[in-house]
Every structure is written in structure tokens, then in C-alpha cells.
Amino acid sequence: MRARILAALSLILATGARADVSLEYTVKAAYLPKFVPFITWPETAFTSPTAPVTICVVGTDPFGGKLEQAASGLKSGERAIAVRYLPAPDPTVSCQLVFLGPGDMAVAEGTLDAMKGKPVVTVTDSGLKARGVISFLIEANHVRFDIDAATAAQGGVAISSKLLSLAHAVKQRGQP
Amino acid sequence: MLGPLAAAVILVAAGVLMAIYQEQLYSDQQTKSVREQAQILAASAAAAIVFDDHKAAQEYVDALQVNPELQGAAIYGGAGRLLASFARGTHLPPLLATPQTGFGPGYIDIAVPAGQNGTRAGVVLLRAITEPAERRFARYAGLILLVTMGALVIAVLSFAQAQLSRRAQQLANANARLQEEMEERRKTEEALRQSHKMEAIGQLSGGIAHDFNNLIMIVKGNLRLLQRKLTDRESAAGYITNADEALDRATHLTQRILAFSRRQPLTPERVHLSTLAQGLSELLRHSVGEKVEIIPRLNGTWFTRCDISQMEHVILNLTINARDAMPEGGRLVIETRDVTLAVPPPDVESQNFVPGDYASLAVIDTGTGMTEDVRRRAVDPFFTTKPQGKGTGLGLSMTFGFVRQSGGHLVIESAPGGGTTITVLMPRDREVG
């Protein structure tokens, strides 16, 4: 529970009260590939030992190219980090991290249900009511995130305690 | 003294070497420990660094403030920007992109990379206090002092030990000297007692012999008178002759006693012992009989002064004694030599001895020899080992008395079964006659 105390991010979104949308998504775009080194997927999540970790953005793309920028050159272990954009959930595409943007709530919930028990880390945007393994939120003009380690564990995915310590709220394994 | 000093120097050197080694070990240990702390910080703050979380990073850094060995700690994020730090009386670099180890006055900088799963996110820097040399030296000064004092104590103890053993050696020497002197004194006392005894017996027997001699003269005179009166009585003449012979023997005996008691009038003459012995050879051969072979070794050339007839008597006496010691026969050597003595021969008291030249005459037999006890008492008057009535016990004592009276010495050497050597040492007479 100490993770809750430690969860404070420093990047200030705006000097005033108004949030700059583009800055918010620049930060979120920077965060997405940075989560990857702190997450351990089972080997079955990949098609091959050298296959990249693929970040899939489902639905609307709010990043406008910032995500590719942030992911370029980053590696997690031996694996590179790739970005793909999917108009709708596609079971034929191997995704390890799925970002559900501020789009259709029904699509988001359907995707979350479909991903349950699979080695996929779902990331839900701050505007959504549905919550994935990682869910962004805005607190005092800072981008922060909650982590549901319990759901991740169901899919065989382990999330480093170092990352948990930065989260705003954590749902630990074994918790309902 | 050199041994303990060397030991002390070695001790001190060993102490210094040990201190240097300890110091090196301590320094390595400290570096290692700081590096480990930096690595722990880098690992645990990885997420904070990756996500540029100043607050979280600061919390990690602040946790290290409890370590008094750290002057400062800092976390640098992407592009080497300072993310979080604390510093105590020191200035940490505002930018640090590459991990490296550096040294400054009184501190050491250890920087390690931070990241997660192969991605480099930043650098963690720890600045640890290193002790100044003088403080480190002070830490060992106590030890050095202790070692030096130990060495000093060893040196002092060794010195005392050496003194003590020298003192003990001196004491042992003194004791040995004392023992020797006591033995010397005991011998001297023994000799003195012996000579007193001899003196007393000599005086007594001399006095008796003198009076006895006079009585014999009276008896003899009266016998002459009686003889004149009894010329007609043939039978009486035989008795008188018997009495005369007995008186002659008595006279002879008193002469011997007087010789022993040194009251005998002597007529010293210049004489050559070898010549004397040579002249006696026929008589001696007859005296010892067939079974004993006489071997003369007459090498003496020096003259001496003594009463010739008494000296002849001495030689004859010694020869007969030697013969009696060899009942089964044997060899008898009569030897004369020229000897120069610087120290008294055995059993001769030093106060009676004059170093110088002596004419020596020795009678050496291969007979039964004497026990030490018998040898010691050999010159006592009336001491004899011969059966009752065979010896008077005056032979050797008379010889001894005569030799001493003539300024010479009598030396008896013997061992049971090893024969006997009796040596007469007479002072050399240098007077050109």
C-alpha cells in the first residue's frame, strides 16, 4: 500500500489550471514505451524469441506520431518496441500492450473482456470509465496511473514493484 | 642486546605493514560498500528515473541521509539532468551523463548507471567521506605505541635476563673456587695432622730409642765386665755371646728408630745415585732371588748430598719390599732420572716443596700393588701388611724420615694389581766438588 503514497509524477502539464491536451498526450506517449522494461510477459505472449514488444493503439490515435518518437530506439532486454494502430481489436495481431484511447466505451469494454486472462497489458485512457491493467488519470495537473496487478497476473504478466511504487493506486494480486 | 633490538624493529615494521595493509583493505572495503549502495539506489529508483519522477527520486535519495559516511547523493535522469540530490557541505555536479569514479579532497565519488531491463535511464552518484591521512594515522598511533612498548619491554626483560645469568655464572664460579679451596684446605689439614702425628711419634720413639741406646750401652759394658770375670766358665761364654747378639740387634733397631725420628746423626756426602745403585746391583740381585728380574735404567747424571750408607739402606729396603710384593716373581725396575719440578708431586705439601732440579730414584715393581688406604698409611711407623713377626713396620717410615731429613721427597704411586712405584726425589747438588 506504500505504492499509493509514492505515486506522484512530476511532470507539470500546465502552469495554469487549463490542461493542454497535446502536452497531456505527449506525456502519455512518452510513458507507454517506458512501462515496457518494468513488465515481464510469459514467453507464450510472443510469436518468436526475438519478436518485438508491440504496443497496439486501438481506435482513435491521440498521439499524432509522438508514440513512434518515444518508442524509437528503446529496447526491453533483447526485444525492440514496435507500435501498431488498429481501428478495432484484431486477434490476429500479436499485441503485448494495448492502449484504449478516448473512443467508444463499448469497444473499450469489449476489448477489456476479450483480453482478460491473456498475456496482454491493457492501458486505458483517463477519460474512460472502463479500467485496464494500467489506467491513466489526471491529478493536480499531473499525469498519473493506477495499476491492477491482479488482472495482469491472471494473464501471466508480472509488473515490477518499482513501477508499482510509482503508481497512484495499486490493486495487488490476490485482491478482489 | 642486539637480538631483542632486532626483534623490536621487526615488531614495529610488522605493525606498520599490518596497518598499511589494513588501511588498503579498509579503503577497498569502503569503495566496494559505497558502490553497492549506489547500485541498490540505482535499481530501486529505476522507475522514478525512467518516469522523471523528482518526488519519488528525492525520497530514495533522502533515505540515504541516515548514512553519515555519505557527503552527498544524486540521481541524474535523461541527458544527465539532476533529478534529485542531497549534499552536506559539498557541491555535486549539476549534470552527469556517464558513470565514473572520481576523487576529491576528503571524498570519493562513485557513479553507477541506472536503468531497467537493459535500458539506460540515468546515473546515480554517491559521494563518500574518506578519512584524512592524519586521522587514519592517529587511528594506528595507539597500535604503534603499544607495539613499541611491547618491544621495549622485551628488550628490558632480555637485558635483565642476561644480567641475571651473568650474575648466576659468577656465583657458580665463586662456588667452584670455594669448593676447590675447601678441598685444598682439607688436604692441607690432613697433611698437617699426619706430620704432627709423625712428629709426635718420632719424638716419642726417638726419646725412647735414645734412652734405650744408653741402657743397651750399660748392659753391654756390664756384659764385658762379666765376660772378663767368667773367663774360666766355658758354658757362660755361650750365654754372653747370645746376649751380645741380641743387644746388637737392639742397637740396630734403635738406630732405625732414630733414623725415622730424624735424630740420627747423618754424614751427608756428594753422591751420584746411579753410581750408588750400580754399586749395589750385586747385593740387590742376591736379595731378590731367582724369580725376580732386576732391570736397571740408570739415566740420572745429577749429584745430590746425602748419607751414603743410609741411602744404600733405603735402596735395599725398597728393593726387598718390591720383592715381597711379587711372591710369584716379576720384573723390578730401578730407575734414576734427572727431573725438574715446578709443582709439588702428588701427596707432597706445597709448603715443604721447593721447585727446582731433583735427582730421582724410582723402584718399580709389577707386584700386587696397594689399596689407597694402605698407600696412605704406608709410611706410618709400625704399620705393616706383613705377617706378625716378619716386618717391623719401620722400613718405609725410616726411609721417609731419612729422605725428609736430607731435604728430599718420597712419592708412592700404586693401585691394587697394578704394581707400585716408589720414587725418592733428592735435591740436586750443584756444588762442584
Q: CATH H-level name of chain A... which superfamily?
A: Response regulator
Number of strands of chain B: 12
Rg of chain B computed from alpha carbons, rounded to a whole number of angstroms: 56 Å
Biggest sheet architecture of chain B = 5 strands, antiparallel
Task: State the low-pLDDT regions of chain B, or none.
Answer: none
CATH fold group of the domain at 266-427 in chain B: Heat Shock Protein 90
Q: Give the overall silhouette of chain A.
A: globular
Shape assignment of chain B: rod-shaped
Q: List SSEs of chain B in N-to-C order.
A: HHHEEEEEHHEHEEHEEHHEE
Oligomer: heterodimer
Query: Could you give a short account of the major beta sheet of chain A?
Result: 8 strands, mixed
According to CATH, the homologous superfamily of the domain at 266-427 in chain B is: Histidine kinase-like ATPase, C-terminal domain
**Overall pLDDT of chain A, averaged?**
80
Give the ordered list of helices and strands of chain A: HHEEHEEEHEEEHEHE
Strand order of the largest sheet of chain B: 2-1-5-4-3
What does it look like?
Chain A has a single domain (2-171), classed as Response regulator (Rossmann fold, 3-Layer(aba) Sandwich), CATH 3.40.50. Residues 1-21 of chain A have low confidence and may be disordered. Chain A has 6 helices and 10 strands, in the order ααββαβββαβββαβαβ. Chain A has helices spanning 2-6, 21-35, 66-71, 105-115, 149-154, 161-164, and strands at 39-40, 53-58, 75-76, 79-86, 97-100, 121-124, 134-139, 142-148, 158-159, 169-171. By secondary structure, chain A is α/β, with parallel strands linked by helices. With 433 residues, chain B is an alpha+beta fold. Among the domains of chain B are: 2-131, PAS domain (Beta-Lactamase); 266-427, Heat Shock Protein 90, CATH 3.30.565.10. Chain B contains 9 helices and 12 strands. Chain B has helices at 2-44, 46-50, 54-63, 133-229, 234-260, 273-288, 308-325, 372-377, 395-405, and strands spanning 70-76, 82-87, 101-104, 107-116, 119-129, 268-272, 292-298, 303-307, 330-341, 356-365, 409-414, 420-427. In chain B, β1 (70-76) and β2 form a beta hairpin. The longest helix of chain B is centred in the middle third of the chain and has 97 residues, at 133-229. Chain B starts with a helix and ends in a 6-residue tail after the last strand. The chains are: A alpha/beta (176), B alpha+beta (433). The interface between A and B is medium-sized, with 20 and 18 residues.
